[in-house]
Specification:
Elements: H1 8-11, H2 13-34, H3 46-65, H4 73-100, H5 111-144, H6 149-156, H7 158-166, H8 172-195, H9 202-291, H10 305-329
């Protein structure tokens, strides 16, 4: 199972897209050669109709085989079903060859199709004629003797019995049976004729294109689904990170406000300390001057109250930082 993060190569999309394009090009080439779109009818009804053709042969032909299997009619039905399937297949081949013979003009170009039709018609004609003979033989046999067919077959042998069947003259019963078989076979031929396209490669090219188009569409849809899932997971992760960043920014803003508030609250105390220090220094300078006989030192009366307050603020801030580092170390 591939994953979307492996890329397009792992999905098989490029290979399927290439084969789809090749199949599409082949279909276009055949369409240009034929000068028309694909012409097929009853595509989805073809198999059900041909199945009904095969099944329709069962009750018709079972009448001819019941003489051989009087005590086992299931075998007669089974043989009739097999013959029905064969006749349906031959009807399919006949209709297909007749349709293919319309693709090109001229006897030489379509000779193989005509030969195929002639062969299948001969096989079908012999088969339905023999079945009709068997039906008439059964009717004449049951009217002429009370013996079972198994007894007659044991007395005469298979060869003589088949000779008798071939010498039977068809009656209306046999002819009716043969006409029904031919009609059912004709329905199969017509169905097959309209089911297929005259061009021998057109439908195969269309089916190949449809097959690779479905594979390409499935791979593409799967890739897009996997990609959407992967992108959704990344979006969720990015959303979580953005939420964390937002929360961190809020914490930093709260901390800045707390620091500003602490500075604002500590400002009066710092000013009081600065004023007290200045006051004490002035008292010291005054006492020093009184005790002197000479001039006062140059550094007296040079204290800047604002500079002192700024240094005290810096000192307090440095002390808070050192305390924070110590708590982190603990």
């Amino acid at each position: 199972m591939w994953s979307a993060d492996l890329g397009l190569e792992a999905t098989g999309i490029p290979d399927r897209a290439s084969k789809f394009e090749q199949a599409q090009a082949q279909e276009r080439k055949i369409a240009a050669d034929a000068g028309r779109p694909l012409r097929i009818h009853v595509r989805w009804l073809f198999i059900p109709i041909m199945a009904m053709v095969a099944l329709a042969e069962v009750p018709i032909n079972a009448l001819a085989f019941e003489t051989f299997f009087q005590e086992a009619r299931g075998i007669a039905v089974l043989i009739s079903l097999v013959i029905g399937i064969i006749l349906a297949f031959l009807a399919h081949i006949t209709g297909l060859n007749l349709k293919r013979a319309t693709h090109k003009e001229g006897l030489r170009a379509n000779l193989k199709y005509y030969v195929g039709v002639a062969i299948t018609l001969c096989i079908v004609g012999v088969t339905v004629y023999f079945i009709a003979l068997m039906r008439d033989y059964y009717l004449q046999f049951t009217a002429a003797t009370s013996k079972s067919f198994a007894e007659i077959l044991a007395e005469q042998g298979v060869g003589q019995t088949l000779g008798q069947i071939s010498n039977v003259t068809l009656t209306s019963n046999g002819l009716g049976l043969m006409v029904m078989n031919i009609l059912v076979f004709f329905v199969g031929c017509v169905t097959s004729y309209f089911r297929h396209d005259a061009h021998p490669d057109y439908e195969a090219a269309v089916r190949t294109r449809e097959k690779w188009q479905k594979k390409f569409d499935r791979a593409k849809s799967r890739y897009e689904g996997e990609s959407a899932t992967t992108l959704r997971k990344f979006d969720e992760k990015i959303g979580g990170l953005e939420a964390q960043i937002t929360a961190t920014d809020k914490d930093l803003e709260d901390l800045d406000r707390a620091i500003a508030l602490a500075n604002d609250e500590g400002a009066p105390y710092i000013r009081m300390v600065a004023a007290r220090v200045r006051e004490r220094l002035q008292e010291y300078e005054l006492a020093n001057v009184r005790a002197r006989n000479g001039t006062q030192p140059n550094c007296f009366s040079t204290l800047d109250a604002e500079a002192l307050e700024a240094k005290l603020r810096a000192f307090v801030g440095a002390s808070d930082n050192l305390a924070g580092v110590g708590r982190a170390a603990e």
